[in-house]
Batch of 4 targets.
Target 1
Amino acid sequence: MVSTAPRRYAPAFHPVHVLLLGGALTLFLGGLLSDIGYARTYEIQWQNFASWLIAGALVVNGAALVCALVALLPGRRTAAALPHFVLLLATWIVGFFNALMHARDAWASMPGGLVLSVITVALGLVATFFAARAPRIGGVE
């Protein structure tokens, strides 16, 4: 007869790391929504909002990147740690180029800034998915 242990779930990453990821993703999403607002209304203030939101997202994403680097240390490493770190690094790099695009004149940053914002949010979503996915512990013995 096979005995089974109840499946338990361990947190994939530290809660502060997940909090930083949520903050960065929210700020990047705010930048995307501001870009959409600028593309529809051509009010320059939307472009200013997007620039500040992206700059804040880069700071928070940088702190989350440091946490992801700590999660790569031996003994703390999970199966999702390396893809999460790589995706988070890609998010920061694309976000940095997005910030440079938004440093231009308001009209000159479109549509490239909007496209980079969409890519940044998509990368951030996938990186957050890898952080939130909990590994299973236990199972059939």
Target 2
Amino acid sequence: MKWATTVAKGILGHRPASLQVAALCLRVRDGKTQVLLITSRDTGRWVLPKGWPMRGRSLSGAAKQEAWEEAGARGKIDKEPIGDFRYDKILDSGLAVPTDVVVFLLRVEQLEKTYPEVGQRKRKWFAPKEAASLVAEEGLQKILRNL
């Protein structure tokens, strides 16, 4: 009977969260760590480059690709995540989907002037504590404050 109740809850919308990957792009300038944030296309709020896992790529590889496409950032990405956070992704239909984001550190070696989403977003370097104050997600704020 307990199993049937669990299955029924699953059917009624208690499904696991979706999964995205993000690149926390960082560099050191004059001995100070800086984090690259970009604006989201829909609301213009500050976020990390992130997206869905990609067929044929590791999770870190997909995060590295998102950093290039959304921010023009190229560099070395860690294979192991530095953290994760959850947020509600609002779909075009208006439905909010709980989404877990696994975050990988990308050490930026080059910032390209042209990249796929260059005209769709702004990008800017921030000190980690300032970046933490600009992002909405509490879990991401914690990751940034711990840099």
Target 3
Amino acid sequence: MADVDATDARLLLALGEDPRASVMALSQRLGLARNTVQSRLARLETNGVLAPLDRRVRPEALGYRLSAYVTVQVVQRSLADVSGALAQIPEVVEVTGLSGVADLLVEVVATDADDLWRITEQVLAIPGVQRTDTALALRRFVEHRVAPLLERAAGGARDE
């Protein structure tokens, strides 16, 4: 993944504020040539700097109003297989490897408590899973964000 410089950060901040802005509008707002904006956006997308668009879709809008975090202890040699099996469960929205007692942190979404039970049973049935522990997410106090980091990378200045 490529590094993001101050100009990239300013561009990403502007795009975050107006995701539908045209290349021309972004170039005028940032005082950059249209070709510069277009080539930087293409490079950021190609280099994997921009997350997939589906990251912006809230599971609640699809009927998944319950969110939970499942910590999973795995037989060490099975980590790749377990991760692959987790990726096959549609309600698994993210899997993160951890250090410590638990090996994986799995974020899942469910329609209700019975659906969550079904999903956790699927996780437990994966060969190589030794133990799970589930915690319901009651409220999100800080949404996923990178704007403060972009502002820092941009030199603290935001374009108005």
Target 4
Amino acid sequence: MHIVFAFLAGLLMSVGIAVSKMIDPAKVLAFLDVTGNWDPSLALVMASALAVYSTGFWLIRHKPAPIMAEKFHLPVVSKPDKPLLIGATIFGLGWGLAGYCPGPAISALSAGSIGTLGFVVAMVAGWYLARKWPLPR
């Protein structure tokens, strides 16, 4: 049953990403181009996501465990550390150069673009390398 709910949550996220056009690199790059032809519409998508997440987090804050798992898996590091800062920098550079971040890139695979496929292959290789050689904290 867990896998069904995980699939449905992923499907809902994918539909939201597609409807908001976050799978279109040109739209994302227009959002990031604050000095040129700026398109602020993705800020509304991000604000909506933050509102949904914050509400959910507020609702579960006093629960002993989630419905579909034995315990919550919350972050344990409370301050930015070296791996977080390096990862955030790489994420930002990749997003700014390619117009994709991981979720939208995976959703955009359905369009069949070779560029998207190349991005996802590079992303998976990066995940593999990061697990193989983790940065010291």
